[in-house]
Fold this protein.
Amino acid sequence: MTNKIPQWFDRLDMLEWQLCQRTAGFSIYRPWLSTLKIASKLGDWPVWVALIIALPALHGRDIGLRLMFEYIATALVAIAVYKLLKTRLCRERPFITFGGSIQCNEPARDRYSFPSGHTMHAVMFCTLAAVHNPVLLPWLLPLAGLIAISRVGLGLHYYSDVVAGAALGYAMALASLGLSTTSVLMVAATS
């Protein structure tokens, strides 16, 4: 498997490991570690499923159901792209590469770290919410930031994994918004 790892990941790992080690080192403080674990668990799915389920209540049945479909479709496409990248790039998690200096404080779902799926979803749903439900942003943005930092703080990701996950989530949301705008314009033009 190591022959699949691009050499630039090896160099990037060496550049980032001390910063990741310092960030993960704060996990010795139990309240901070608990906060990171809660944020990570919320970023698994509960907050995003709750957001999707709430859409009909926030927008009415017809628009809410359309948005539900859009959010679910966006998430499924994002997961497919994320899994493709993760299995092709095969970047080892920091606690694997630097096991003696970076501790894993939460079970990893798989072996590879690039990109961060938790961060991808957090940024993707925040971007969608910024357009459709901006009133939710004061709660979602801090949570998204905490989810992103939790991935490094728990020893599961490098900062570049989080940045890449955020960029991927933002791109997926913009693509989704672009497609939904195009379809609304096409429907309006035919009416």
